[in-house]
Amino acid sequence: MLIQVEEALGALKSELGLRPAFHRVDRRLEGHLFITVLAYHLLAAIQRQLRHKGISCRWQTIRAPLATQMRVTVSLAHEQGERLYIRQTTDPEPFHLMVYQALGLAPQPLKTKRLKI
Fold it and tell me: Per residue, what are the HEC states of the chain?
């Protein structure tokens, strides 16, 4: 369990920029610590639910493939100077679907958005 905690905190520190903490005001340091603990509890809850569904990989093993699904925005210019922005989530890969299903999440939670300017 200690290895899991150390790996989780290492991932949180690098991804969320939770280190180093050079705060001169106590409330900022407390806020920083609160966010770190909250993120760790969220990560632990996700891993626990995945383990119950038979996915017992390390966090780095899960995180790297999940990072390949993205939200992309395309900007198109019309002849009259009007711009069209289309924002869409990429299609999930089989690994994404397996993790989302284990967590009870929709494979594409955000719908395609179109904006004319």
Answer: CHHHHHHHHHHHHHHHCCCCCCCCCHHHHHHHHHHHHHHHHHHHHHHHHHHHCCCCCCHHHHHHHHCCCCEEEEEEECCCCCEEEEEEECCCCHHHHHHHHHHCCCCCCCCCEEEEC
Tell me the pLDDT tens digit for each residue of 1-31. Answer: 667 667 776 766 666 555 566 667 777 778 7
Rounded to two decimals, the pTM is 0.68
Q: Look at the chain and report how many structural domains it folds into.
A: 2
Residue where one domain finishes, among candidates 67, 82, 99: 67
Question: Mean pLDDT across the chain, nearest whole number?
Answer: 83
38 and 73 together in one domain: no
